[in-house]
Amino acid sequence: MKRAETEELANAIRAGNRRALARAVTLVESRRADHRAAALDLLAALKGGREALKVGLSGTPGVGKSTFIEAFGTMLTGQGIKVAVLAVDPSSARSGGSILGDKTRMDRLARDPDAFIRPSPSQSHLGGVARRTREAAALCEAAGYDVILIETVGVGQSETMVADLSDIFVLLMAPAGGDELQGVKRGIMEIADLILVNKADGELAATARRTQADYRGALHLMRKREEDPEGFPKVLTVSAMAETGLSEAWTEMQALADWRRAQGHWATRRARQARRWFDEELRQGLLDRLTADPAIRAEIEAIDADLAAGTLAPAVAAERVLDRFLGR
Description:
Single alpha-helices involved in coiled-coils or other helix-helix interfaces
């Protein structure tokens, strides 16, 4: 892509052109070397300026994430707030294929002119977060979206990845008994800023309130974080289907974001995230270059039989490949 084309695309994104934004997200997700170079030029051209509230959202399959996002996003656009949804779909470990069905599950929000929905395959990336989701979020910020909802696969992998992408991390849970509560990992509870017990309607309303009390009790046993005001993390009940509790959840998100900005935690958090993602990009970049080297690929193929036979230790084999790559 020529410099004039990059500038034209950047201007279209700044103007809020959704077609241009979709094209740019496709560009940053591409693995082609020429596309990657163009994507880096585009990101550099768009650097700085607008800043959105990035909300990470996780929860086990079946908890109602898509229903919640559609109801919550529609409520926000009804208030004149522009919403972008980056929904990370699970990729097949064998073929790399992905269902990419979030637009069909969020039909109402997909047709909203103030919303942008982009499903992205996770490509087996740790935490169910696509490698380029952070860059896609930066593009949405530049396009003038006020809130970016980042939905993870939620399959029990390390969800710290989405916490490092977002300003606020929300954990969506279903009404459950004590046994189900015991199965919730302590790690994900420790990084959650807000726990929303969904499906708090009809016959499940009472169960949802009991679950809320159980989670509140569990949070009291955890160490208070410096970047949280008094009372956080909080546990609320919501119903995406009945669309109740959504405005209360939004009020709490805004209050937490405002407090973190005022106390300096917002800027500190984003700076820390930038450093972590620099480290991640460095590791991934080195791995990409290593595996793209024909001589290295030949070396790996040559030692593959020894590894399979158990005559060569994996650590020794890795050191041999690194020595060859570094010319030692």
